[in-house]
Amino acid sequence: MIKKSRITNKEVARVAGVSTQTVSRVINNRPDVSPETRQNVQAVIERLGYRPSAVARSLIQQRSYTLGVITAGLKYIGPSMILNGMTGKAEELGYALLLKELPRFDTHNVEHIFQSLIDRHADGIIWAVPEVGENQSWLKQLAPNLSVPVIFLTSPPHSDLPYIDYDNYRGGRMATQHLLDQGFRKIGHISGPLEWLSARQRKEGWQDTLRDAGIEATPSCWVEGNWSQGSGERAFRQLLEQYPEMDAVFVANDQMASVILQVAYREAIMVPQELGVVGFDGLVESAYYWPPLTTVFQDFHTLGCTAVKELVEIIEAKWIGTASQITTRLLLQPELVIRESSIKRG
Amino acid sequence: MIKKSRITNKEVARVAGVSTQTVSRVINNRPDVSPETRQNVQAVIERLGYRPSAVARSLIQQRSYTLGVITAGLKYIGPSMILNGMTGKAEELGYALLLKELPRFDTHNVEHIFQSLIDRHADGIIWAVPEVGENQSWLKQLAPNLSVPVIFLTSPPHSDLPYIDYDNYRGGRMATQHLLDQGFRKIGHISGPLEWLSARQRKEGWQDTLRDAGIEATPSCWVEGNWSQGSGERAFRQLLEQYPEMDAVFVANDQMASVILQVAYREAIMVPQELGVVGFDGLVESAYYWPPLTTVFQDFHTLGCTAVKELVEIIEAKWIGTASQITTRLLLQPELVIRESSIKRG
DNA sequence: CTGAAAGCGCTAACAC
DNA sequence: GTGTTAGCGCTTTCAG
What we know:
2 copies of one chain form a homodimer.
Chain A: H1 9-16, H2 20-27, H3 35-48, H4 54-61, E1 66-72, H5 77-93, E2 96-102, H6 111-119, E3 124-128, H7 137-142, E4 150-152, E5 163-166, H8 168-181, E6 187-191, H9 197-212, E7 222-224, H10 229-242, E8 248-251, H11 254-266, E9 276-281, E10 294-297, H12 300-320, E11 329-332, E12 335-337
Parallel strand pairs in A: 1-2, 1-3, 3-4, 5-11, 6-7, 6-8, 8-9, 9-10
Antiparallel strand pairs in A: 10-12
Chain A binds a DNA duplex (16 and 16 nucleotides) through helix 2 and helix 4.
């Protein structure tokens, strides 16, 4: 039962006729309380609907069981699926989540965001913002000086900070290799904005795989998009023009790929016969595009789960005094989901 | 600058040679401090990188400047866009967000979720979970007994609790009326799952509008989907069968509508000439469907903003002692976005 | 204008 | 087993 006003330890103690200390022992399941006393106190707690104040506890224990999450772009599905994974795991592990969202992906001044999380005694912080432009370089200097552990959800920061991410480079390679395996040779690319590390990595994967196959990726083979549908259409039309012999295209995300499928359809370019298409991200809807889209699947939900799990491990280790040397560095492997858009039929 | 270990008020006081009280006055911008003292203390604060503990403050002030948010289905775009709106407004108003997500939309036992928020001294709670089945009836009994204000992001709870939502019923009417205006007469409907209040409301809007136009919506005119693409396809095929004379369809969300457009295309059903289509939600991608989809737009971002704004107003009013009678009840009006999928050409 | 004392709600450390 | 004392970091009295 939830009570209108806050019941305190003291009141419980008074009603139960014991000291606040004993009440404390009971709510913390300490062994050194006699069964009768425990039962009695327990009963009073239930009757009064007493709940210990997490705030007071945080203050005395110097632990809040709270994780700070810094994200950006919640209006896109990727970041929110990551968050979705985090909430579940956090709940499971008994941590609450304090959420902050940057106004833009490339927001620069984020020190006050960290501050506000630390002011609230967050036990650890998850930086779930993609690396765009220079938005991380200075951050990487800041992070080691923080009093709480931070884990990055972005590719290798070229430092010794803990991180977890999907291997975008390998994803790019997988997509391209798959198209090569299908017999496509003139493989174009529509990238994300190159200020994004992940866009660069996907593009490099494409480029290197072609090179390994003895094919050179000239500048006319690719166009830069900005992840959005609109940019996908523009990029595709430009690519058709500057690379007319193209027989397949690796698109850096599914949203742009969806538009490309539609434009191709309208322009009577047969997919996959005349144009193989592979996307990236593995959005649920990509299975319903026409034709169904082959894509590189990243499990954002798991990414979020894992981030929380790892961070909590670091926190607890630090707490127990175990080597705080748990420097998590995980590069998760994406998965190629093969559908019709890339299967060259006989 | 961020410091590795927490600097306390006391330390600042010691270094500055004043009492902790004076430090407190300075950080709270109280007028009763001499300019010199203030400057001196200010300098020490900067130098030491002192930041007051929000936790200690919460404890003494009985206010945490924290809002609890209970959401569900973050892996879908709607809930996350709402959240996106909340983070911005909360930041602006100086509140932090404590995030909880229900494992499922129809999670029943949520008392412990409220508890955990209250344990952490949230100043108010936003219930951003759609009404599904009976998941709210008992909640509405609980809410008035809570020690903190709660605001609902769902349609009229038939009680006196504050809420904000989009008018789903009117949205359904707008969509249907628009199709009628375009000269369509046999207007079918693919609804969301009817355990959802919003699905029922949209359907009712469709039904009533048809009735007002002297058209009866028989059971064969509609099929129930479950919001997903897959269900959309199934529902559409069934509807084609049981309502072959249908000349337009109002689909309860854009995701299902997108699949319907594709199926129609493949089956050589011309949209909009042979079949007018209107969706619901106003997803960004609906503008890129083929043909571009007419849809009922709800601004989720604004919904989230407004929720935070209203809740904070209630909180501050309560704090100032102003009539806690600010019972917010807002039904926002959705907006019809007309695109090609519903324009009957000459 | 400034400081001393008290206490928010809880728990660690030590008595008994 | 249980109570007492002290104090987490801050702010609200109330003196001076």
